[in-house]
């Protein structure tokens, strides 16, 4: 069974929003990084994106609210209302592939399933009903 988490995208206000959510729900971020902190060979980070949030996770009870800012190369597609994903965290790589393939059928793949620089097996897509999904399987189990 996969764990279900909401994932929110912002147009440069992710840090401010998540600090607000933290003040409301309490707790601490379990993960926080800026785009300028990542090192991806062959994918330079534009100067205007370096201070944007790459990823943030805020545990709320047994769930995790996650988010990021949109980078400049996809900012033209950003509209309030299309900035939400449902993030699934399956128990296995095989389950990740199954969920990705079945849910994305008839939809539009944004990122195919592949091992990512942060160490997870990840993919994203919009399903045939217009809902955005992320599938994320941690390759390094803690």
Cα-atom radius of gyration: 15 Å
Determine the strand fraction and express it as a percent band.
35-45%
Alpha-carbon distance between the termini? Answer: 18 Å
Q: Got a strand count?
A: 8
User: What form results from the Cα inertia axes?
Assistant: globular
* Element order: H for helix, E for strand: EHEEEEHEEE
Architecture per CATH nomenclature, i.e. the level-2 architecture of the largest domain: 2-Layer Sandwich
Number of helices: 2
Major sheet details: 8 strands, mixed
Q: Which CATH class of the largest domain?
A: Alpha Beta
Biggest sheet, strands in spatial order?
Answer: 2-3-4-1-5-8-7-6
Helix content: 10-25%
CATH topology tier name of the largest domain: Signal recognition particle alu RNA binding heterodimer, srp9/1
Question: Structural class of the secondary structure composition?
Answer: alpha+beta
* Mean residue pLDDT: 87
**Stretches with pLDDT under 50, minimum 5 residues:** none
Overall tally of domains: 2
Describe the structure.
By secondary structure, this protein is an alpha+beta fold. The protein has helices spanning 14-25, 93-104; strands at residues 3-10, 31-34, 53-60, 63-69, 84-89, 108-115, 120-126, 132-138. An eight-stranded mixed beta sheet has the order 2-3-4-1-5-8-7-6, with helices on one face. Strand 7 (120-126) and strand 8 (132-138) form a beta hairpin. The model has no long low-confidence stretch (mean pLDDT 87).
């Amino acid at each position: 069974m996969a764990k279900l988490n909401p994932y929110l995208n912002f147009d440069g206000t992710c840090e401010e929003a998540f600090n607000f959510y933290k003040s409301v729900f309490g707790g601490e971020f379990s993960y926080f990084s800026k785009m300028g902190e990542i090192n991806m060979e062959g994918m330079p980070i534009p100067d205007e994106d370096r201070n944007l949030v790459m990823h943030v996770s805020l545990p709320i009870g047994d769930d995790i609210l996650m988010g990021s800012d949109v980078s400049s190369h996809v900012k033209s597609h950003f509209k309030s209302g299309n900035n939400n994903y449902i993030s699934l965290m399956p128990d296995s790589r095989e389950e990740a592939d199954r969920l990705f393939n079945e849910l994305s059928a008839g939809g539009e793949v944004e990122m195919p399933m592949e091992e990512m620089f942060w160490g997870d097996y990840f993919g994203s897509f919009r399903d045939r009903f217009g809902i955005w999904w992320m599938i994320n399987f941690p390759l390094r189990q803690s």
